[in-house]
Amino acid sequence: MAASAGSLAIALAALTSGTSAMAQAAADDASETAQSDTIVVTATRRSESVLKVPVSVAALSQQNLDDRGIRTIQDIAAQTPGLNIAASAGSVGGMRASIRGINSTAGASTTATYIDDTPVQSRNSALNYSLSTFPRVFDLDRVEVLRGPQGTLFGASSMGGAIRFITPAPSLSGTSVYGRASFVTTDGGSPGGEVGLAIGAPIVEDKIGFRISAWYQHEGGYVDRASYQDKNSVQDNADSSNTYVLRAALALKPAEWLTITPSIYFQDQKINDTSYYWSSLSDTHAGVFRSGSSIPQPSHDRFWLPSLKIVADTGGINITSVTSHYARDVNEIRDQSQTNNLTTFGPKYLFTTVNGYNQVIDTWYSHTKQRDYVQEIRIQNSNPSRFNWLVGGYYSHSKIFSDPVLNSAYLNDFTQQYFGKTVAQYFGTGLVDGLYRYTGVENTTEEQFAAFVNVDWEFVKNLKLTVGGRYSSNKLVYDITERSPTYVTGVSHNAGSIKETPFTPKVSLSYDAGENLMFYSTYARGFRTGGVNKAVPMPACSAGLAALGLNGTPPTYNSDTTDSYELGSKGRIGGGLLSFEASVYQINWNNIQQSIRLTCAYPVTLNTGRARSRGFDINLNMRPTNNLRLGMTVGYNNAKYLDTLKSGTKATVFAGQKIDGTPWTLNGFFEYSFVYGGHDAYIRVQDTYNSRPQGPFGFQNPISSVYDPTRVTNEAMNKLDVRLGLKAGGVNWTLFSENLLNAHPILNKANLYAYAPFFTERTIRPRTIGLMATLTM
Question: 462-501: b or e for each residue (b if 16 or more CB lie within 10 Å)?
Answer without folding.
Answer: eebebebbbebebebbbebbbbbbbbeebebebeeebebe
